[in-house]
From TrEMBL:
Residue ranges, annotated region (Disordered): 123-148
Residue ranges annotated for the Amidase domain, each copy included: 23-418
An example molecular function term from Gene Ontology annotations: catalytic activity
Protein name according to UniProt: Amidase domain-containing protein
Gene3D superfamilies to which the protein is assigned, alphabetical: Amidase signature (AS) domain
Lineage: superkingdom: Eukaryota
Biased composition, class Polar residues, residue ranges: 128-140
């Protein structure tokens, strides 16, 4: 095989595991982790023991992810690895049960490869030790910092993240990889450290769309009306480019990618038009923040009452409701957002997909002590509206860093979204970014 073993996709690994050649990934992590620092916990002995157990499964009983290495964000419970939430409160804490998503992966034959770094409780702007594999002076994004970096650095083909604001899509853009944030609650969140019950969503990382297809199948992300089995004909596709109320934050790296994407899609035969959302959607950032304040308080109150001296100040602000958000404001935010969900579904349904920025800019330069993980402004509304989103890489910013754009479709249309992403991936690949 011409490519190095650690560069294999998940689909290729499934075939390769029958010959048992997975040591290349362990060697890759051991070589690169001192630089990228994607892992909060990595133990080759546990990995090898799990791999030996998988080897004992008869070929006819092997799952669709047999032997595929998956990195797991360290806010997701795993019974064989500690779950520490990047918090001193949970240092070396070992849950007794796997999260529901881990049970599903194990039943499908996946090899849990270790725990990836996160910000504290997947909440804070202060980043963990992880750096961007394409420029170690820049952030990998957050809060799914280690998962995005590990996939972008060919340390694992697949990884799990979570998203409450932009914690899956933003790292995907910064690291030049694909990521799917499914419809809210389409994948069980049982066994994840909760931040916002209204927004928290399990996220999926891969280096190509076919691997996201594999994960979507494993997690039973099925549309009521599945897409055709034939590739999308772009000459019959129509894309709605949505700037959103956050557009003034878009930097040249993003505006250039935006214009180039329109140009490339038109050249491929697709129809594109800019979409102006009703003015009510301009309030989503405020409503999202109100929800996080109140749901964050209920989520982190116990940690605050138990160990306030060990918490990041950002977590404390939530736990004590430092912004004095009222229940009336919370209810108004819930009700207004709920009213907009069917409206955005109907708008998105008019297009093959909506296209919107994944980020405001290239990955920011890391500056101590904050290690800022980047601006999630372009992601917030889609998270709180519960729509599925996929980051598609393809573009390069002025500093040589990857920039992605997001495809968005109505709720519970993950198969259609990925079907579209296959075609868009090939078009965006002309934008210059290629994961080497």
């Amino acid at each position: 095989m011409s490519k190095p073993l650690y560069k294999l996709s998940a689909s290729e690994v499934v075939a390769l595991t029958k010959s048992g050649k997975l040591s290349a990934l362990i060697a890759r992590v051991q070589e690169r982790d001192p630089v990228v620092k994607a892992w909060s916990y990595f133990d080759p002995e546990i990995i090898l023991a799990s791999a030996r157990a998988l080897d004992q499964i008869p070929a006819e009983k092997r799952g669709p992810l047999h032997g595929v290495a998956v990195g797991v964000k360290d806010v997701i419970h795993t019974k064989d690895f500690p779950t520490q939430h990047f918090s001193p409160i949970y240092e070396n804490d070992h849950p007794e049960l796997d999260a529901s998503c881990i049970l599903t992966l194990r039943a499908s034959g996946a090899l849990i490869f270790g725990k990836t770094h996160t910000t504290e409780f997947a909440t804070c702007q202060k980043g963990p030790p992880t750096s961007n594999p394409h420029d170690n002076n820049r952030s990998p994004g957050g809060s799914s910092s280690g998962s995005g970096a590990a996939v972008g650095d060919f340390q694992v083909p697949l990884a799990l993240g979570t998203q409450t604001g932009g914690s899956t899509i933003r790292p995907a853009s910064y690291n030049g990889v694909f990521a799917l944030k499914p419809t809210w609650n389409a994948i069980s969140r049982e066994g994840l450290k909760m931040y916002s019950i209204t927004c928290d969503t399990l996220g999926l990382y891969a280096r190509d769309v076919s691997d996201l297809d594999l994960l979507a199948d494993v997690f039973k992300l099925k549309d009521d009306v599945p897409p055709p089995s034939t590739p999308l004909d772009l000459t019959k596709a129509k894309f709605g480019f949505v700037r959103t109320y956050v557009w003034p934050k878009a930097q040249p790296a993003v505006t250039s990618a935006w214009e180039k994407a329109k140009e490339l899609l038109v050249a491929a035969g697709a129809e594109v038009e800019e979409v102006d959302l009703p003015s009510e959607f301009d309030n989503l950032g405020v409503w999202h923040r109100n929800i996080l304040h109140m749901e964050g308080q209920s989520s982190f109150l116990g940690d605050y009452l138990t160990s306030p001296e060990l918490l990041d100040p950002w977590v404390i602000k939530h736990a004590i409701n430092d912004d004095k958000t009222t229940r009336r404001v919370q209810l108004d935010s819930y009700d207004n957002i709920a009213r907009l969900r069917p409206i955005i579904d109907s708008i998105a349904a008019k297009y093959t997909a909506l296209i919107t920025p994944s980020v405001t800019d290239e990955a920011p330069v890391l500056e101590e002590p904050l290690r800022f993980t980047g601006d999630a402004s372009f992601n917030l509304m889609w998270t709180v509206l519960h729509l599925p989103v996929v980051n598609v890489p393809g573009f390069i910013g002025p500093n040589g860093m990857p920039v992605g754009l997001s495809l968005v479709t109505p709720r519970y249309t993950e198969q259609s979204l990925l079907h579209t992403a296959h075609a868009v991936e090939k078009v965006f690949a002309q934008g210059g970014w290629k994961l080497e």
